[in-house]
C-alpha cells in the first residue's frame, strides 16, 4: 500500500503508531499536531490531484509553520525515510518513464491500451497514473520541486539564478534526493567542467584512489570527484554542506527511459551536457574503473557503464532530504 494512503488513515483516525523503521511525521502544516480537518484533509485533497490554492484553502492550522501550497505539496510528496538506504534517502526509485507498451501481435501501443498489455510497465506505477501526475512537476510520473539558493521550496515558475530566492537545486519528491543544477556560465558549477574519479575513502575505493585533479574546473587542485564535492560544500549550495557524488543507482533514477530526446527532464535539469557523469560507485571487477551514467541526448545510448578513473567526465552532486 502506498505510504501516503497509510498517512491518510493515520491522520483521519488519529492512528499515530508507525513501524520502527519509518521516519514519518503527519503534521503536514507544521503546527505541532496532527488534525483530521487540517493534515488529514490536505493529504486527501493531494491524493485527489488537487494542487495550488485549492489544496490549502481552509485546511491549514492557525499556528502552521508551513502555509504555502508549494511547502505543503513538497512535504506530502516526500516519502518516508527507510532504514538501510544511502544517507537517509527515501529508499524509493523513480519509475522508468515508459508510458507506451508492446502491442499484440506487433508494434507499440502509444496509449498503453489493449487486452495484451495489462502487465506491461506502462500500466504500473506513478508514470501510468496520468490523473494524479501532471507534467507541471515533472513528466511521466517524475515529481520535482525547485529549491532556492537559500534552501527554500519555491514555485515551479521561479527562474534559475544566483539570487537568494532564485532557483539553484532540484528536489526529487519520489526518491527524497536533492540535486545540484549546473550553471551555463563559468563558475564552480559550470556545466562544461570535467573531472577524474578520485576517492580517498578506503571503504569505497576498493584499494585504489583513482586520479586526482585530472580534469578542468574552476578551482585549481580540485578537478576530481572528491575535490568538486568539497568545493560545492564550501559555498553551502542551497543552504547545505553535505553534498556528495551520487551512487550509480541514484544517478540512474534521473533517466526517463520513455524519452530519447532528451532522456531526462530538461525543465528541472537545464544545462545538462549530453554525455557521461561520474557516480561514486567503484567498478569492483576492475579497480582502475568506476561506474558512470550517460545522458546522451543525440542517441539512445544512455544508462550506466564502467569507465577508467582517469577519464574526463562531468559530475552532478546530490544530497538527501529537503
Mean pLDDT: 82
Give the fraction of residues assigned to helices.
10-25%
What oligomeric assembly is this protein in? single chain
Number of helical regions: 6
Report the principal-axis shape: globular
Give the termini distance in whole angstroms.
24 Å
Whole-number total of structural domains:
3
Strand line-up across the major sheet: 4-3-5-6-10
- What is the CA-atom radius of gyration, in angstroms? 21 Å
How would you sum up the major sheet?
5 strands, antiparallel
The fraction of residues assigned to DSSP E strands is 5-15%
List the helices and strands and how they pair.
Layout lengths: L2 H11 L22 H12 L5 H4 L12 H9 L23 E2 L5 E2 L34 E5 L4 E2 L12 E6 L4 E4 L44 H11 L12 H5 L23 E7 L6 E6 L8 E6 L9 E3 L2
Antiparallel strand pairs: 1-2, 3-4, 3-5, 5-6, 6-10, 7-8, 8-9
Helix pairs in contact: 1-2
Short description:
With 322 residues, this protein is of the alpha+beta class. The chain contains six helices and ten strands, in the order ααααββββββααββββ.
Give a written overview of the molecule:
The protein is of the alpha+beta class and 322 residues long. It has 3 domains: 75 residues, no CATH class; 37 residues, no CATH class; 141 residues, no CATH class. Helix content is 16%, strand content 13%. It has 6 helices and 10 strands; from the N terminus they run H-H-H-H-E-E-E-E-E-E-H-H-E-E-E-E. The protein has a 5-stranded antiparallel β-sheet, covered by helices on one side. Helix 1 runs antiparallel to helix 2. The radius of gyration is 21 Å and the shape is globular. The two termini are 24 Å apart.
Amino acid at each position: 500500500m502506498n505510504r501516503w494512503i497509510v498517512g491518510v488513515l493515520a491522520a483521519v483516525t488519529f492512528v499515530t503508531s508507525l513501524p520502527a523503521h519509518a521516519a514519518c511525521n503527519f503534521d503536514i502544516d507544521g503546527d505541532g499536531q496532527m488534525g483530521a480537518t487540517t493534515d488529514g484533509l490536505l493529504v486527501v485533497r493531494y491524493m485527489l490531484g488537487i494542487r495550488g490554492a485549492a489544496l490549502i484553502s481552509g485546511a491549514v492550522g492557525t499556528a502552521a509553520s508551513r502555509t504555502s501550497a508549494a511547502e505543503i505539496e513538497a512535504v506530502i510528496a516526500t516519502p518516508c525515510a527507510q532504514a538501510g538506504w544511502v544517507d537517509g534517502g527515501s529508499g524509493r526509485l523513480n519509475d522508468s518513464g515508459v508510458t507506451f507498451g508492446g502491442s499484440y501481435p506487433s508494434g507499440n501501443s502509444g496509449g498503453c491500451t489493449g487486452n495484451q498489455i495489462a502487465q506491461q510497465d506502462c500500466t504500473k506505477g506513478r508514470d501510468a497514473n496520468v490523473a494524479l501526475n501532471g507534467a507541471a512537476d515533472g513528466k511521466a510520473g517524475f515529481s520535482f520541486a525547485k529549491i532556492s539558493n537559500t534552501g527554500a521550496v519555491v514555485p515551479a515558475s521561479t527562474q534559475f539564478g544566483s539570487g537568494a530566492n532564485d532557483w539553484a537545486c532540484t528536489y526529487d519528491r519520489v526518491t527524497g534526493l536533492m540535486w545540484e543544477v549546473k550553471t551555463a556560465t563559468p563558475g564552480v558549477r559550470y556545466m562544461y567542467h570535467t573531472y577524474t574519479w578520485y576517492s580517498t575513502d578506503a571503504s569505497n575505493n576498493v584499494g585504489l584512489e583513482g586520479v586526482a585533479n585530472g580534469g578542468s574546473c574552476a578551482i585549481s587542485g580540485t578537478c576530481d570527484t572528491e575535490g568538486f564535492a568539497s568545493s560545492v560544500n564550501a559555498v553551502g549550495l542551497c543552504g547545505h554542506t553535505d553534498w556528495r557524488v551520487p551512487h550509480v543507482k541514484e544517478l540512474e533514477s534521473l533517466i526517463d527511459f520513455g524519452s530519447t530526446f532528451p532522456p531526462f527532464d530538461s525543465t528541472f535539469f537545464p544545462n545538462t551536457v549530453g554525455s557521461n557523469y561520474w557516480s561514486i560507485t567503484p567498478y569492483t571487477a576492475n579497480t582502475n574503473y568506476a561506474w558512470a551514467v550517460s545522458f546522451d541526448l543525440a542517441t539512445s545510448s544512455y544508462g550506466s557503464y564502467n569507465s577508467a578513473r582517469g577519464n574526463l567526465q562531468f559530475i552532478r552532486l546530490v544530497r538527501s532530504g529537503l
